[in-house]
Model the fold of this input.
Amino acid sequence: MNSYESIFSRLFSEYGPQSWWPADTAFEIMVGAILTQNTAWLNVERALANLKSAQLLCAEALLNTTAEELAPLLKPSGYFNVKAQRLLAFVEWYCAEGQYPTLKSIKTLELRKRLLSVKGVGPETADDILLYAFNRKVFVIDAYTRRIFSRLGHVEITTSYEVLRACFERHLAKQDVALFNEYHALIVKHGKDVCKTRPDCSCCCLDSCCPKQGVKEN
DNA sequence: ACCCAGGGTCATA
DNA sequence: TATGACCATGGG
Done:
């Protein structure tokens, strides 16, 4: 068992199954993936609740919306003007592609390429959507992942998204969607619950994955 | 008052 | 290719 695998098993025994992504529908996952860009999930939930109350959490309804009426509903999740436009750009693409029934039969690599062509969808958002809405075997890299694994000495902090993703996908023997799903969720759980509240890392299940006090790491 | 969050785009060098 | 500015709210 290599270090990538042992870190997973330590996280899993510490926190247990996370059952991601928290959402009622695949479309809600995609909307959430855009709204959570550089934003705390609690604030995303408020924006999603606003959309749900306005009956706007489906593609057909969103398509008949403007950025002007969308922005106020997205306010709690921050960057509301930007995200209103990103959401519209995504929904226009999504409907033009024939929505889920058509998209689900496209090969993963091709689907990823098309997602990345949408303005406002970058590598992490695309991979969130691929893994959690389409159940594709891609490993999602986020800021927590890069920080934790560079602190543990496995990668440089400057390692690019694609290189880091390839690194994870290569080091996991069990090439399994459920594993990739759980691993990313556990990393986020660990990042939220431990690395912030216990900066000395003294009770951290990963041993010094947190910054030493007083030491900066850009 | 400060730092950061489940990023991405665009302009500059 | 690689930084920097910008987007903006809410919690700790």
Q: What stands out?
A: The domain at 26-133 of chain A is CATH 1.10.340.30 (Endonuclease III; domain 1). Residues 212-218 of chain A have pLDDT under 50 and may be disordered.
